[in-house]
């Protein structure tokens, strides 16, 4: 049970003051009856709430899939740069969501954003072996010997030995290469550092899969959508 004004504030219907006047104006119904007391306590999961004739789909958590654009930081707040949270509409910001793990400012692609702390921990823990798949363009050729090095565990220049990873070559010639890399951990700049230790540079990086969730064609950079019930269930099985 929670206060009606708090429930509506959590859903982004304005400040507590604005919501109080919305309620006093008779614009809110609970189970079909106009309610004018903003402090009334109700169970939002089992009551039908309407605001100005629109049914409210109450939920505690939100799960968003964003195609992160270049130049935006994976953080909830930044003094200088736009963040992935700044891009979201206020009705989503109201849930106080945060990105699951990080993509570098110049990395694009699949980023999950949620306010579900438990799921976040499960998804980012290397113990759970969640695959993260990246499409990358490299400034130099790669070959079978690089695939073997990824499989054995690349040793970074700082001495850290990575968990085994999968390198798939899409195309490679003297001008550079296009590859897919699958990793299960998520150290800072991990993919870039893995190639650096082979004296190669990542010139373009886009995440295309996170566990069971794939970035679909048609979701343009900077666009986002809520995950479907099936997608949320598939992540909770991890
Ligand atoms: N590895 C990187 O180097 N950068 C990212 O953003 C993600 C993985």
TrEMBL record:
MF-aspect GO terms: isomerase activity
Catalytic activity, EC: 5.4.99.-
UniProt keyword annotation of Isomerase present: yes
Classification via InterPro entries: PsdUridine_s_RsuA/RluB/E/F_cat (IPR042092), PsdUridine_synth_cat_dom_sf (IPR020103), PsdUridine_synth_RsuA/RluA (IPR006145), PsdUridine_synth_RsuA/RluB/E/F (IPR000748), PsdUridine_synth_RsuA/RluB_CS (IPR018496), RsuA_PseudoU_synthase (IPR050343), S4_RNA-bd (IPR002942), S4_RNA-bd_sf (IPR036986)
CDD domains, sorted: PseudoU_synth_RsuA, S4
Domain RNA-binding S4: 2-65
Domain of life: Bacteria
Entry keywords, A to Z: Isomerase, RNA-binding
Keyword Ribosomal protein included in the entry's annotation: no
Homology family: Belongs to the pseudouridine synthase RsuA family.
PANTHER family per record: PSEUDOURIDINE SYNTHASE, PSEUDOURIDINE SYNTHASE FAMILY PROTEIN-RELATED
Name by which UniProt lists this protein: Pseudouridine synthase
Species whose genome carries this gene: Clostridium moutaii
């Amino acid at each position: 049970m929670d206060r009606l004004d708090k429930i509506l504030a959590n859903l982004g219907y304005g400040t507590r003051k604005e919501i109080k006047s919305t309620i006093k104006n008779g614009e809110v119904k609970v189970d079909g009856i106009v309610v004018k007391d903003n402090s009334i306590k109700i169970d939002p999961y089992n009551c039908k709430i309407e605001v100005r004739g629109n049914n409210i789909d109450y939920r505690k958590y939100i799960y968003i899939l964003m195609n992160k654009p270049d130049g935006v930081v994976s953080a909830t707040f930044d003094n200088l740069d736009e963040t992935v949270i700044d891009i979201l509409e206020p009705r989503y910001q109201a849930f106080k969501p945060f990105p699951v793990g990080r993509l570098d400012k110049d990395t694009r692609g699949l980023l999950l954003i949620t306010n579900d702390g438990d799921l976040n921990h499960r998804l980012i823990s290397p113990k759970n072996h969640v695959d993260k798949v990246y499409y990358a363009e490299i400034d130099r050729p790669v070959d079978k010997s690089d695939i073997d090095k990824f499989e054995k565990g690349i040793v970074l220049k700082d001495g850290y030995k990575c968990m085994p990873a999968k390198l798939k070559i899409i195309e490679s010639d003297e001008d550079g290469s296009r590859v897919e890399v699958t990793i299960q951990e998520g150290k800072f700049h991990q993919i870039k550092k893995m190639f650096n230790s082979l004296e190669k540079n990542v010139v373009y990086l886009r995440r295309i899969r996170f566990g069971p969730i794939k970035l679909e064609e048609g979701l343009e950079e900077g666009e986002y959508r809520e995950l479907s019930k099936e997608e949320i269930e598939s992540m909770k099985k991890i």
